[in-house]
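Possible race condition, two jobs.
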Amino acid sequence: MKKILFMGAIALLAVTACQKNNTTPVLQEEPEKEALDVRISPVMTKVTQTAFETGDAIGLTITRSAGAYATNEKMTFDGSVFSGSLKWYAEGTDGATLTAYYPYSATAPESFSVQADQSAGTSESDFVAGIKENVLPSAHAVTIPFKHKLALISISVTNNAEGEITSMTLTGARLTAKIGADYAATADETAAAGSIVAHKTADGTFVAILPPQTVTLAVTVTTAGNKQLSQALKEAVLKGGKKYSVSIVVNPEDLTVVTDGDITDWEDGGNLDPDDTPAGDLVEKLSEGYIIYHEDNYTVAKMKDGKWWMTQNLRYVPEGLTPSSDLTAVTAGIFCPLKVNEGHTAAEFDTSEAGISAKGYLYQAEAALGLKVGDLTTVAAAQALEGAQGICPEGWHVPTGADIISLVGKSVGLETNKNAPYFDGENGSIKLLNEDGFNMDAFGAVSIQDNTKTAGTFMGWASGYPDKLSSGMFCGSTYAGVTYNEKDVESSGIKNLQFYGFMPMTNKASESAYTCNGSKVSYRIAAPLRCVRNPEEE
């Protein structure tokens, strides 16, 4: 699609001539009529920054009263109309409903992701769809009005700084939308939040397309000399087909968001206002049940132990690390999450965006605690890490043994707290935790027993429960034990260290029996991480 305006609909007219003569007509069998091609003439219902380009393809579905006549047929644009190999059914009085969407996908899309870098243009991030009812077979091209299904942010700039603005970035939005059967788009709440580099139009306005969602955005301007200035915006509800305006003034040392701006295309969604919360690595919205950490949204809840907990697994990639999907990478520090394979015969790595967003990454203890793998060489150093922030947000920490016991009541190696709010009398209860929004499950782990191992194994899948992961471990920060290369000989060097973490187990017949107790977790095991907020910070 090109950045030009296109509004015309091409109507193809068929003219039939009737001839008369004075001879006696000879009755002949009427020849069978040749089936007519289905052709679509597109019209955008609002002025748009994009128009269809020759070679673009849509997916077309035709539904009659008796059911689907054609499903997701590929139709290609020739500069005037969309066409393909699809023929009309025999003419009659049975009208059909035509639905179409762009861009075409081999299977009808259930999701659509906008590009993170839209600096070259927004066309590949613009999901549009249209519908036309009561359509009869015809030689004419059917005109279908297409509508934008995503939201547009338009940023006008007054630049008082020296040098030009080299880029404009929006952070905090989810980039993936779920697409309904009617092609309505809604943000995928399991998708991780990310950044979008906006496109600079000919008139100097910056634009970006993102899925409809409730979002707290931040605008970051990069000026000449690579200087960055940021401003958070207030939470806003972005709707499909709407354009939202932001007007900013860039000064040498800061930028200001103002609330005026004209609507020139799409439907008017209004202005996005500045927020008083400073942009940065952490934005806390505790009363609204979430935080933003490194431009990614996480749900949080104040549990009955009186502490704020992340209710999603951390999916932050520390600087210098790359998530691994190789079981022999025993010092990678961070691994992709796990899933059950298609044959339901084992666990495997899940490298998909959706999987990572839903389950987070798996961290070895040293990486979770903010160190490099191999840094821990003494018991004293391990003991000193209790309550460490690690890779958690500022003011939060990797859970301690005390945090675990005060929440679920039970752990190997620690005294049981029968008064813990999520202790059911025998175990820490996943059912009780999740009734209060903790979202705990068995996510599995990469098991690496100690630092002498050259390969890990998948932990979590069992043949008795083939459809799910049924066990796992979580990172913690309280020292729990040590083994040496020679038994009990400290001078022989450390072979393994252990920290107290969670161990969820769902290998039960009933969800009400699922457990989440504390456990000793070897420091080379790669496991999920939930952070807990420091009490003194409340």
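Job #2 (started ~2 s after job #1):
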Amino acid sequence: MALNHIFRIQFPTTMTTILWADDEIELLKPHILFLEERGYTVIPVTSGNEAIDELSSNDIDIVFLDENMPGLSGLDTLSQIKNRYPSLPVIMITKSEEEHIMDEALGSKISDYLIKPVNPKQILLTVKKHTEAKRLTSEKSSMSYQQQFREIGLELGGHLDHNEWVGLYRKLVYWDLELADNQDDNIHEIFRSQKAEANRQFCRWYERNYQDWIKNLSADKPCISPMVFRDRLFPLLKQERPTFVILIDNFRYDQWKFIQPTIENHLRVDNDSLFFSILPTTTQFARNAMFSGLMPAEIERKYPQYWVNENQDGHKNQYEDQLLDENLRRNGFNIRHSYHKVLNAQYGKRLVDSIPDMMQNRLNVIIYNFIDMLSHASTESGIVRELAGNERSYRSLTLSWIEHSPLIELVKELAERDVNVVITTDHGSTIVDRPVRVKGDSSLSVNLRYKQGRLLDYNPKDVFEVRDPRNIAMPKLYVTSPYIFAHENDFFAYPNNYNQYVQLYTGTFQHGGISMEEVMIPFVTLSRK
């Protein structure tokens, strides 16, 4: 379809109303005419009291306020306006450049200030800056994405390798964030469709290549979970300074890009890279593979004392510290290291206090489980589902947590020291909205995005099917126990109580299957500024 048929972007043309308060308003008549000729409505008043009256009876978009008016002064008027209309942009205009006046005005949260004499173009630019910035930004981002739309489409039509998929996903995450505040619904629908198509093709590509990567038949394969510490962390350990690994469970690349400016207030980003989670994209498998440097079947064979299968009782990630220790030793690192799992704010605060002790270690690994708990809570709590009902709000909740958690205090403390810092994760998650029917006996695993067990009944066309778990280096629990993985935004639902199941899980964040969001995940290295 031609681009001009796809993109029907329309921006509302709204009339901007300006309230201008100045006791010498007659002298400003040329400025007012200049604005009116450009489609603005200007309400002129000569005092602060008149300004307050007009605000109570008209919808005003922006106020120009003379600082030096008789009667109710500009600063007093400003105070009353901000008390009643805190989000209304107010521009202070003053003859005086005295610092105390500016301090008082800025302390009262003016949006901007101008020094007399002002010229019409100054006024026009100020109006546009404070009333049309969002619309102008939306227009610019829409036009820029329109130019990239065809380019991304052409890339999707080619035969991408793993590096090209990473590049494409970076572009999609960039546009996801760039278009988040766009005012045009049409552009959001276009982007959602293109991202969905990218996910469809990514799933097919991953399914075609995954078993060859695991069997080492492919020379050109991405960095996957068992390789990431060896290839990206261990080179840092050869340096003399300590390295702190902050692993945020279930942390997506778009969440990293959203919080990056906050982290960069304290640390410099040296390298922003991605790697590929193994399947299933869950903590039990992906994180154990990261810490051990081995695939799950290899862990079970080499270190059976550290592996807990799905059909066994016990916590599935209770031996990460021991697996990391074995991995370090196999790679020639006889170093002091520590391992910490932060499950609550109290422990997080105590951990910040212990940084001087951790500076004696070459490696410190700290795991934060908040985001994983948030994604599970979105299933169990209607309130949390409301708060994290889409990717944009999910990112916002992540940022809010970062800003108010002990993690940011840890980052601030590390920024004062000569250390390497790594921010990474074990897997991501995706919003599910399409149920796929599956049946099995009581051995069936409970995860919504992958299933393993006896007597599995499903449509092979709906899933990524691995009949022999050894082909993907997974433990084989039963004689007949294939693995199946959900694609894109699918999730598995049982025929029994099907409608109730679908209602419960549709629109929740899940992981375990194949999607760009679950598989391509961040490994970021940072250091002191």
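The first helix runs from residue 3 to 6.
Logs attached separately.
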